[in-house]
Amino acid sequence: MGEPAGAGAECRSGEPPVAALLRRYPAYGEPLSCVRVTQGLLNRGYRLSTTRGTFFLKQHLDATTSHHAVVARQHRATERLHALGVPVAPALPDAEGRTVAQLGGDCYALHPWVEGRHRDGAQLTAAGSRRLGALLGYVHTCLERVLGVAGVHPAARAYGSADPDDTFRLIDDLLALARARRRRAAFDELAEHRLLERRRLLAAHAHRRPAAAAPSAGGWVHGDFHPLNLLYQGAEPAAIVDWDRLGLQPRAEEAVRAAMIFYVQPTGRLDLAKVRAYARAYRRAAGLGAAELAAAVHRVWWERLNDFWILRWHYQLHDRRADPQFPAVSALAVWWTREYDAVRDAFTG
Fold first, then answer.
1. Domain that holds residue 99
2. The whole model's pTM is what?
3. Radius of gyration for the chain, computed over Cα atoms and rounded to the nearest angstrom
């Protein structure tokens, strides 16, 4: 479940109270070491070794997803998915049968440690891409079985689209911040170039803003399906992890978003042959038609055209952890606009 940040590093003050936590899990032994893993932008994960084995300890920190009830719902869902054969690593119960431990104001969960590696689209063959699409389609159909149909759920709602006027204002704000740097770095130069470029694209394509998607388009989705949340053993997916974003969204849009992350190349292009293999397998497994995927492609394209989350993190939150993703992500929006028909055809053909 990720690579260790420093082999042999012990949890220090401010890190999880491992001894107190394991007293709730007497069946899993005494602590030996607790090593931080590097992956994860919102929460923290640790490789916890005990006298009884190795486990993944998750510390839920993200304000929007770390409430006890929210985490417990995720655990119930993954337990039921596991029973249906979905590759997940359900949270382990403590001595009283609870899967969420709340200590010091934070929520923790203990999971089995899954040995495996992450694979992006460049490491997947056409067969591996079909396997990936079929897996996500199966996840979506199983989530509907265990959590119900979104269209009759109280949380069902229309799914809106970004307002370009809001985006123009955001672009102006981010440009001002990028230009205000006393010592401008290559990142600032690229940010300014992409912001100006995106403003021109939005002005040219504002008339293509999609209408709100109906509640019936929504379904239960993983919410964050990308290479760092999927572990492989050989060519086979071994575990889908990090279900923090489990929620109601248009299912086809999650399939498109996932492909954008798995198959984007450093130049910002997509490997469309692999996307086609992935999308065909997804449509078959999820039971969705080409028209629904075409609509999802359009909505996610518009979303990407209006999205500047990496620049907001960098300039407004002073958080640079996502900076390495910016060159490819920002180039993708431009390339996708130019190759719109080819991308749509890859998802629907």
1. 18-112
2. 0.90
3. 21
